[in-house]
């Protein structure tokens, strides 16, 4: 079921795509600044690359605290008029797939903020996340 939903979302994004992001763009920042608990915060450094117009793939690294192993998340974003469709997986584990929608706001000359609404298929939760960084 999750593969069907992801395929439909990506197909719709492909049909509606415009030249919002270009091949060769680099993104460096945070995958998200997440409220892990009311008092604890986690930051996931991320790097991404525009592999073709409107499609960015990337890698995020996160570690909640020193007692937990670091995790590597692979993600992709397909841009449509400033909005993007988001898909991510922890490592190559397709059982824990995150899909979502977001908007990329450019604040000043390559500095961006990207809030997104993300559904996690393994935990069956929906979260609002916030990332920020540089695009060059």
Structure characterization notes:
- There is one protein chain.
- The protein has 136 residues and is mostly beta strands.
- It has one helix and nine strands, in the order αβββββββββ.
- The longest helix has 15 residues, at 2-16.
- The radius of gyration is 14 Å and the shape is globular.
Short summary of the structure?
The protein has 136 residues and is mainly β. It contains one helix and nine strands; from the N terminus they run αβββββββββ. An eight-stranded antiparallel β-barrel has the order 1-2-3-4-5-6-8-9.
Keywords, separated by commas or semicolons:
mainly beta; 136 residues; eight-stranded antiparallel barrel; 62% strand
Topology:
Blueprint: H1 2-16, E1 26-35, E2 41-52, E3 55-62, E4 71-80, E5 83-90, E6 93-103, E7 105-108, E8 111-120, E9 125-135
Antiparallel strand pairs: 1-2, 1-9, 2-3, 3-4, 4-5, 5-6, 6-8, 7-8, 8-9
Overall 3D form = globular
Helix content: 10-25%
Question: Order of strands side by side in the largest beta sheet?
Answer: 1-2-3-4-5-6-8-9
Residue windows where pLDDT falls under 50 for at least 5 positions: 8-19
Distance from N terminus to C terminus (CA atoms, Å) equals: 36 Å
Structural class: mainly beta
Work out the helix count. 1
Radius of gyration: 14 Å
State which percent range the strand residues make up: over 45%
Mean pLDDT: 79
Q: What is the total tally of β strands? A: 9
The biggest beta sheet is recorded as: 8 strands, antiparallel, barrel
